[in-house]
Specification:
Number of helices: 19
Radius of gyration: 29 Å
Strand order of the largest sheet: 1-2-3-4-5-6-7-8-9-10-11-12-13-14
Shape: elongated
Number of strands: 14
Strand content: 15-25%
Structural class: alpha/beta
Distance between the termini: 69 Å
Largest sheet: 14 strands, mixed
């Protein structure tokens, strides 16, 4: 098999040669092109082809749309995972059909080929380094690592919790945006449905941006829901749509991230029915033992009911975002006392109006997360100076804080200076965002530059003790000129000319 020894030599040479023009083909690519000029010869050679030559040959066959060679390569694929999605354009139906035809030939065999190792067809846009490495390009892993590296299937990663192991898993990320399925997804779903005893459809990221919940059901009924790790529902769903989705959510035992956005209630719904639908959804959180990130944006049912979400959470969250939603003061009190927020690294309450709230629940909340919180977003919460003053001691204890957003809250120069006195000692804080104090504006809302300069000078003096780079942003809203903003950067041991104020 001298030709294969030559191929191996070409492979090593292509990795050692550093080409000045990255667009030039490697020696391996040139050899693959030569072999594919005769597909029948290429197919007959697969039985004895060295493992390391499969990826460059497959990539070349895919680029040249050598259909028969691709089918044969899939049947003889010597790796557990075929990361086809890294080579495909979005919704490449032709490429999908070729791949599935090759798999059909493989699944139809009564006796498995000696080299059959394929377990996962990965249609996600991932694993680009796999192809770069075997083609002789630069990648994040070495050839030695790649030879032994095994891409695990979802069934293995989930500890075998998905029942009888199928012959093949098809793994993809799903983005449902239309009322009807596109041809790519329709073809795949039909193919999987007809082979459901042999093939498992898995998804780790599922994004729903269609208001038609029944379209989502068509896919959810065919998915192995235990594989799902991230779900985003970003559409105008009613409470009844959310309740329809709830049983599917309960089966996502490995879900790590959930985002709900724009959930509203129908005007005609009776209070008793609303309570039933809310409970039908919130009770599903009891099944989400791996949930780490929870985001709820413009969600109608939270006011007075946040406890219904929090009481069902089984594990501490790492990230909690409740934005542009109405909460009551009792909701904030409940949040501050919940065991699920004790390990938060990110808290986002932007758009939750607290103007009439007592500062006590927010103060207790900040104290509860002070040891772990890295990002705090209180944009547009309507917090007044008196409330800010009350929470400052708790804020100053957030020793791990790196980012603090306090934009679009009415603040005076005095309150801002007091705030900066507390934040200046937070050694990890690198980004602060504030609205420019109202005193900087004239009666008609015009920005007074000289007042802004005075504020800058004060901040520069206060920032002098800083021992790390820090950026402070000031939005000039409500300045009538749109998009106007000022930036202040302070870094220890820099001369005044190095500070920027634009």
């Amino acid at each position: 098999m001298e030709r294969f020894g030559l191929w191996s030599s070409l492979l090593q040479s292509s990795r050692s040669i550093r080409m000045e023009d990255q667009d030039l083909p490697t020696l391996v690519q040139l050899a693959a092109r030569s072999l594919l000029t005769n597909q029948a010869l290429a197919i007959s050679a697969l039985e004895d082809l060295p493992v390391e030559l499969f990826p460059p040959l497959f990539r070349e066959a895919f680029a040249r749309r050598c259909t028969e060679a691709l089918k044969a390569l899939i049947q003889a694929w010597p790796f557990p995972c075929l990361p086809l999605g890294a080579l495909m354009e979005a919704s490449d139906l032709e490429a999908l059909q070729v791949a599935l035809d090759g798999l059909d030939m493989l699944l139809a065999l009564t006796d498995r080929p000696r080299r059959w190792k394929l377990q996962v067809l990965d249609l996600r846009n991932l694993h680009h380094n796999f192809w770069k490495l075997w083609a002789g390009g630069n990648a994040d892993v070495s050839p030695a690592q790649a030879k032994t590296r095994r891409l695990k299937s979802p069934a293995e990663e989930n500890g075998g919790e998905m029942g009888t192991k199928p012959l093949l898993e098809v793994l993809m990320d799903l983005n449902l945006s239309q009322r009807t399925l596109d041809p790519f997804l329709s073809y795949l779903l039909l193919w999987v449905e007809q082979r459901k005893a042999l093939v498992l459809l898995s998804c780790k990221k599922f994004k729903i941006i269609t208001p038609y919940v029944h379209s989502a059901e068509k896919i959810l009924d065919k998915l192995q829901l235990a594989c799902v790790e991230e779900v985003e529902v970003n559409c105008n769903w009613t409470l009844s749509s959310l309740a329809t989705f709830a049983p599917y959510l309960s089966r996502m035992g490995n879900l790590r991230s959930l985002l709900l956005s724009h959930v509203h209630r129908a005007a005609s719904i009776a209070p008793e029915e609303q309570e039933r639908l809310v409970l039908q959804f919130t009770s599903q959180f009891a099944h989400l033992g791996c949930l780490q990130e929870l985001s709820m944006d413009s969600v109608c049912f939270l006011e007075g009911r946040l406890h219904q979400v929090l009481r069902f959470l089984r594990t501490p969250l790492e990230s909690l975002s409740i934005t542009d939603s109405r909460l009551s003061e009792s909701d904030l009190t409940c949040l501050s006392q919940s065991p699920s927020i004790r390990q938060l690294s990110e808290l986002n309450l932007s758009g939750v109006r607290m103007t009439r709230f007592s500062p006590e629940p927010l103060r207790v909340l900040l104290e509860s997360v002070a040891a772990t919180m890295k990002t705090l977003d209180l944009e547009d919460c309507g917090i007044r100076d008196a409330q800010l003053t009350a929470i400052l001691p708790a804020l100053s204890r957030c020793s791990s804080l790196t980012t603090f957003n306090y934009l679009r809250n009415p603040v005076s120069v005095t309150a801002l200076e007091a705030l900066l006195v507390h934040t200046v000692h937070l050694s990890h804080l690198s980004l602060e965002m504030y609205s420019t104090p109202l005193e900087v504006y004239g009666p008609q809302g015009a920005l007074h530059q000289w007042r802004l300069n005075q504020l800058r000078d004060k901040l520069m003096i206060m920032a002098e003790p800083l021992r790390q780079s820090r950026t402070i942003w000031f939005s000039t809203i409500p300045c009538p000129l749109p998009g106007n903003q000022a930036q202040f950067e302070a870094q220890a041991h820099l001369c005044p000319g190095c500070y920027r104020w634009a």
